[in-house]
Design brief:
Elements lengths: L3 E2 L6 E2 L3 E3 L13 H13 L4 E3 L8 H10 L8 E6 L1 E2 L9 E2 L3 H15 L4 E6 L8 H13 L3 E7 L3 H10 L4 E3 L13 H8 L2 E4 L30 H12 L1 H7 L4 H10 L6 E5 L3 H8 L8 H11 L1
Parallel strand pairs: 3-4, 3-12, 4-5, 5-8, 8-9, 9-10, 10-11, 11-12
Antiparallel strand pairs: 1-2, 6-7
The protein binds NADP nicotinamide-adenine-dinucleotide phosphate (NAP).
Length: about 300
């Protein structure tokens, strides 16, 4: 599979990033770990080399499941992104709090390294803007981790353009992870142009709008995971969303592709996006997703996808 440069770093990644939130065992329910691990390996076999996780996915559990999936694969042939910010305590019932202080960043990176069973993290991201720590302190910690060889590059997730601009005054941001899909395009307004101007690599989350953009729903489904309370998956709104997505079937079929492949392809061709992250539960899902690589949409087709989902 082809590789793309992650911003201005020397890290080369696949045009699809394997999303690991589903390994956490919380928001998406408890999924069979053998399926999750098999999917990690299947992705690698198919040429995917980029995996996105976070310490917060199941309070460290997601990182451990990913490490099990990657076990035995050559470390220099895959790229690991993980994140931190949501500090949890081991005492049951104690609430999480946001934390990007120097000492916590240094300490938590060590915990992620242990759970991921690796000597270094390729991409280390602040999971959210943290208002009670000055960004200069967080970036100092990131620089120390780089100097010590524990991380290769650092960046941010879910920061607004204004927050990224502030961050850039105090440190280096190589990667940004915003929410973006063709139903939710807010990032196009100011985060994407800023990232393009600054040479920041962009990996998008929610790329399939939690599965809505796969074209597999009828509008009758009910959910027992995080989608249970998501308005886009309820009643009339859900049906309208499904109707819009189903209109993509004609374009997809004309290209000999599925709707999910069409939608991911359009994300891959977005000039601001380095690699869309796709949340994966089973081997067949990553097999379906990689069908988005190695062909192209015309400008007219790209706009047909955008306009259908507008
Ligand atoms: N930085 C952040 O704050 C943040 C937030 C959220 C996510 N993320 C990252 O971004 C990744 C992607 O986002 P996401 O997982 O939330 O949502 P997503 O990629 O928009 O949607 C994931 C869902 O798409 C469906 N799917 C994937 N491949 C499929 C295929 N080939 N055929 C049919 N259905 C398929 C699955 O739905 P079913 O469940 O119906 O099988 C899966 O659960 C996450 O895994 C995580 O790594 C980051």
């Amino acid at each position: 599979m082809e590789r793309v440069q992650l911003g201005r770093t020397d890290i080369m990644v696949s045009p699809i990033c394997f999303g690991c939130w589903q390994m956490g065992g919380t928001y998406w329910g408890r999924l069979p770990e053998e399926d999750l691990e098999a999917a990690v390996r299947r992705g690698f076999e198919l040429g995917v080399n980029f995996y996105d996780t976070a310490d917060a996915y199941g309070n460290g559990h997601g990182e451990e499941v990913l490490a099990d999936g990657l076990d035995g694969l050559p470390r220099d042939q895959y790229v690991l992104a993980t994140k931190l910010c949501h500090h949890w305590l081991d005492e049951p019932g104690s609430p999480r709090y946001e934390d990007l202080t120097y000492d916590y960043v240094i300490w938590e990176c060590e915990q992620s390294l242990k759970r991921l069973r690796t000597d270094y993290i390729d991409v280390y991201l602040a999971h959210a803007w943290e208002p009670m720590t000055h960004p200069s302190e967080t970036f100092l910690a990131f620089e120390k981790l780089k100097k010590d060889g524990k991380i290769r590059c650092a960046g941010v997730s879910n920061w607004t353009a204004e927050q990224i601009r502030t961050g850039l005054r105090f440190g280096r941001i190589d990667v940004c992870q915003p929410c973006f899909n063709f139903f939710q395009r807010e990032a196009e307004k100011d985060v994407f142009p800023l990232c393009m101007a600054e040479g920041i690599g962009v990996m998008t989350w929610g790329s399939l709008r939690f599965g809505l953009l796969t074209g597999k729903y009828t509008g009758q489904e009910t959910f027992d995971d995080l989608r249970k309370t998501d308005p886009d998956f309820q009643g009339q709104k859900f049906k309208e969303n499904v109707e819009k997505v189903n209109k993509l079937k004609t374009i997809a079929e004309s290209k000999g592709k599925t709707v999910i492949q069409l939608v991911i392809r359009a994300m891959i061709q977005h000039p601001a996006i380095t690699t869309p992250i796709v949340g994966i539960k089973r081997p067949d899902q990553i097999e379906g997703a990689v069908g988005a690589v190695g062909w192209s949409l015309t400008q007219q087709e790209l706009y047909a996808v955008r306009d259908t989902l507008a």
